[in-house]
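Limitations
The structure tokens in this dataset are predictions for the assembled complex, not deposited experimental models. Users should treat interface geometry with appropriate caution, especially where small molecules or nucleic acid strands are included. An illustrative entry is reproduced here so readers can see what is and is not provided.
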Amino acid sequence: MRVQWTMALRYLRGRKLRTALTTLAVVFGVAVLFGMNALLPTMLQAFRQTVLATTGKVDLVFTSVTDGPFSAERLEAVWGVEGIAEVTGSLRRNVLLPPDLAGQAGLNAVTLVGVEPEVAARLRHYPLKVGRFLTADDSDAMVISKGLAEKLALSTGDTLTLPSATGTTDFEIVGILDVPSIPGVEEVFVPLPAAQRLWGMPGQINVIEAVVKPGVDRDKAEQAVLAALGEMFKAEPPEMGEELIASLQMGEIAFALFGVMALAIGAFIILNTFRTVVVERRHDLGMLRAIGASRRVVVGLILVESLLQGVLGTAIGLTAGYGLAWLLLLTVRSVMQHYLRMEAAAPIITLPNLLTATILGLGATLAGGLWPALSAGRVTPLEALRPVAPGAYERAAKKRGIAGAVLVVLAALALLTGNFNMAALGTLLFLTGLVLMAPALVGPLSRLFGRLLALIFAREGRLAEGNLVRQPNRAAVTASALMVGLAMILAIAGMVTSIFDGFMSYIDHSLRADFLLMPASLVLGGGNVGAGPELVEEVRAVPGVTGATTLRLGTAAVDGLTLQVIGVDPETYPRLSGLAFRYGDPEEAFVALERERAMIVNGVFAAQRRVRLGDVLTLQTPAGKRAYRVVGVGSDYLNAKLVTAYISQANLERDFYQTADLLVMVEAAEDADTAAIQARLEEIVRKYPSFVLTEWRSFREEQERVFGQSVYLLNVIGVMFALPSLLAMVNTLTISVMERTREIGVLRAVGSTRRQIRRIVAAESLLLGALGTAFGILAGLWLGYVLVTGMNVSGFAIPYYFPYTGILVAVAVGLLIGVGAAVLPARRAARLDIVAALRYE
Amino acid sequence: MTLIQTENLTKIYGSGETAVVALDRVNMALKQGEFLAVMGPSGCGKSTLLHLVGGLDRPTEGRVLLDGRDLTALRDDDLAALRRRRIGFVFQFYNLIPVLTALENAALPLLLDGVKPAEAHRRAAEWLQRLGMGDRLHYRPDQLSGGQQQRVAIARALVSEPDLILADEPTGNLDSRAGDEIAALLRRISSEWGRTILLVTHDPRVAAHADRILFMKDGRIIDETRLAGTGEGEAQTLRERMEAL
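Predicted assembly:
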């Protein structure tokens, strides 16, 4: 109906500042959602184009389901498949650069690819800048990328020394490639036998590439090869760099989530604004009903208003989002060109992205407007004609308060069940309950905080307290806006504190050896080059060393899930280090590891696959299917986040053919000369550049420092999440003061000074800030506890730590926001022309 | 012919010990084209009577018949439609929508009823012209005086050509000159345009313009008088009757 549009437009125009602030909430959410989803596909597309340009003629790629190595003899099976024109095997793994080279190159690892030179040159295009490609006669020759050559100042004829299973290997650079094969990854090529020697894997490869004959169906050929290779193999898409793509996609999901969160908070702001609107416009709405407007018309009026704001906010948000994507693209473009050699064009606007952002933008606004609209529909015509008895509001607030209290009790019961889904549902109940209870709590809390406030603002404090108690609904709306923001900050702070303390206790429990010979990458599977048995033997022989134990690594698959398998020595490992157990008896578990095919699984694995003690799981190992019995659930520090199982090193050798030690933990005698031991260990490690010697205490401190940085990052993310809510608080407070213009006019008319007005508004804001902070702390503690419970359910066994610092930060932020948000409105209120203020409708 | 009739109309607010009887078994009738004023002290139930007759509120007991049709049996939407088409309201505080112009405010019942805006505006402009507001069509309420705002409210009440005009203290918020003008206007609406008017007031000078007057006290009709003219003499008589209540 046109009259609704006219009125909605006029009302919005009549309150420009409020309209702008409310619309801003929608703009923010839509801009993040749309902008990020326009940027990331651009980067993905650029990445894929670059990859496709360099994959050459390869049609089919196969790897083992465990991603582990296998015998090069398997190539014969592929040659036997009809329709295959060419087949080659390669050994492709990351090699961590020694620290001095890593610093110079600005990257930790390179991907070393061992290829069959003649066949590889036929299958792929290797454009050379200088020198030649590998030949079958080469021994320790290497072809590197232009980028790496520039970074390390290498040219043909120079030598590059890389860590190997026997210490180090020198490679002679024979050629420099013009482009890297895979963006973001520096590849170096060596003859296959050289790569096999480097890792101590004679006769092993881990990738098979094939080309089909012209006219042969690619998919059929792929199935035929898979049938020939057996169930231990899987087909790969003909592109690598999945990690980068996965990271970009993760980013896409994270930003989409962030955008949706921002929009949800936007909807909350709209809800708050329109609740204020309905209260303020009760008289007009009642009059409309009196002259014959149906409930539907009144509901429609509020919905049209929110729709208009949604359309405006979404339109501006889409434009701002596109601008944001451009801006970010300009920022990362030089990085992409320099490091990834990728050229990204303009942000990509896809129809699904446009539709999603638009629908969510409009949907969030309409959803925010719906409840107030329905409550507007319930305004009776009589409300236009006479003031509603305050008792009616009190009764309604009491009813809502009781309903809220019931919800809070239900939420507490849900939390007690220990079931995460129930607890998550409980959180929703808790927040709703708190919002419903808020008006009923305004009175008692205001009186409580009012006493404190009276110490600073003697007279104004009492007036401010009176204002809040008189309008508990309005106060509750404002406090709820602050509650959401602070709850976010506190929940994230609570989670971060728990993760931080939890992980530090993991270090104390599972990595407590006096000295550690660590791999360059703490992720064991991150391309570390291990050491043969000589290293640990040398370590054990050092005077003063009473024991040494090692970790080894293999990869298995369980029902399609890749599983990291850590080999431990069941005798020495529990004595020197050990796991933090959740289920099972540690002593019995390690005995079982020694005696049979038994494994201890970590929490993440147990949670993902619902594994219980005594379960027997079939692992696909390089040696075939093997049944392992679960004898414990526990984790060590390094592998808490990854899906991991611990087995004996004897079983790892038998079923996974892995004997290389990736980490060595050393125990010194209590009265030993630790300085002498350290000096001797340093000498040994010098021969193994892929290892770094660390003393336990300094390792713990370093981890604490590194973790501290991550905590900082998490806190930044927390603030980012809280930002829209804080905007909501400022917004609602500003609106709240604007709505009181007439009251302020009356106060001025009866003789209040400008200073008193400023102080009243400030005192009221401070009181509101205190209310919101109290609600926020309650909600934040709850949310944080549920998040930590969720992490425990997903396998990260971390205890809940009370976030004392978080509470202090929340109190500081809450009160600062309370006062800060009042500064402008208070100044504006004090400067108001009395007559104009009295006329304010 | 009877347009409005009430039967044992009762309204009780609250319950138990705190119950307040605002209207106590009121029976009255209003003929087509009649101008009836209801007088009485504050809290006597006169506004409650008007609200029930206008379908703004529902009685605790009794019925309101409009052309023989029971209003108390109507659904909310039907009542709203009835208020749009057959009843016009004039309130003490004008109750205009602050963001709409005089013309848009006056046209509102028609627009709510789905009449095309051009037609609604034409008819609203016509009424505003008749009520002497032709030169203020595009003014917003805050740009008009109290008397002018009440004229716009009267135009809004008349625009859908309703049978019944309900006026609740229409001069209560105006100075005496503007009040006299509005009272005279209501008389004109009844005499010249044949509308039925139910006026609630405690101002004898305004009530003196009516054809008939009901006196209420404690929720009941206690007296009734028919007026011959609208002079100061009638007003004085009414003033004395009011003082006696």
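Some entries come with short summary sentences. For this one: DSSP finds eight helices and ten strands in chain B.
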